[in-house]
Amino acid sequence: MNIITEMFNTIGIRDIIDITIIAIITYNVLKLIKGTRAEQLSKGILVILILTKLSEWFKLYTINWLLSNLMTWGFVAILVVFQPELRRGLEFIGRTSSIRNNMSSKNDVPEVVTELCDAVASLSRQKIGALIIIEKQTGLNEIVETGTRVDGIVSSGLLINIFIPNTPLHDGAVILKGDRVIAAACFLPLSDNENISKELGTRHRAGIGITERSDALALMVSEETGSISIAENGTISRYLDLPTLEKILQDIYSPKAEGSNSMFSRWRNFDEEVQDEISKK
């Protein structure tokens, strides 16, 4: 009891701040790698560390030497294997502003939202598959280069025409930057998350995949059911209705949304309401 009392007496404000910072960093790192390959690799590394310590305790010198060298030389291999997660983490740290910086004019904001909603409503009604990526702080030039440059003003007619089946640009993703359609028929990285529902096809996995590697927002329309989905930060929200979609897009493009860090936390409630409505039906 005295030892515990002495330990608490020696803890100062700096120690509390130090522990709090480490706890926050650890929490965010675990949150970042959750549901990715890095989660399984982290478990493997933890097992190796435990085995290394056990071999040291039991004086198994050969095994200890092998495991110690494996950890030493494996550091470079870890950097290579964890490259996507490290890149995602560094990009997350570097994000300081939002899509509003890409807007050419504040007066264009309502028009962009209206055009997007009209296009998605038409595509959903006709059960035409669509994948629209809204670029924010993280640049998507590498993705744009895989498709065809468009560089046109966002309009419902343009978006609908792009995704009409059997047209040259319908297969792939459309990249939006502010109020402009930058490119179409772009190829996206698929998500490696094993927890994604088996009901979701390549389009949805691609939409989730790009949000795992950047701060972009993915808007998807299912060609099987016509349902509308949105993904951000590797998390997908399905079965959105048009009023909910409009609120989300207004929140993204509106100049009044100063100080908001992640719109997903705000429109998650919308999704829960939609899910309740679906269950009632």
General description of the model:
The protein is of the alpha+beta class. The chain has helices spanning 2-10, 13-33, 37-57, 61-81, 83-94, 109-125, 141-144, 156-163, 202-213, 242-253, 264-280, and strands spanning 130-135, 148-153, 173-177, 180-186, 217-221, 228-232, 235-240. The chain has two domains: 2-94, no CATH class; 99-280, DNA integrity scanning protein, DisA, N-terminal domain (YojJ-like (1). Helices cover 55% and strands 14% of the residues. A hairpin with a 2-residue loop joins strand 6 and strand 7 (235-240). Helix 6 packs parallel to helix 8 (156-163) and helix 6 (109-125) packs antiparallel against helix 10. The radius of gyration is 23 Å and the shape is elongated. Mean pLDDT is 80; it is low at 103-109, 257-275 and 277-281.
Per-chain topology:
Layout: H1 2-10, H2 13-33, H3 37-57, H4 61-81, H5 83-94, H6 109-125, E1 130-135, H7 141-144, E2 148-153, H8 156-163, E3 173-177, E4 180-186, H9 202-213, E5 217-221, E6 228-232, E7 235-240, H10 242-253, H11 264-280
Parallel strand pairs: 1-3
Antiparallel strand pairs: 1-5, 2-4, 3-4, 5-6, 6-7
Helix pairs in contact: 3-4, 6-8, 6-10
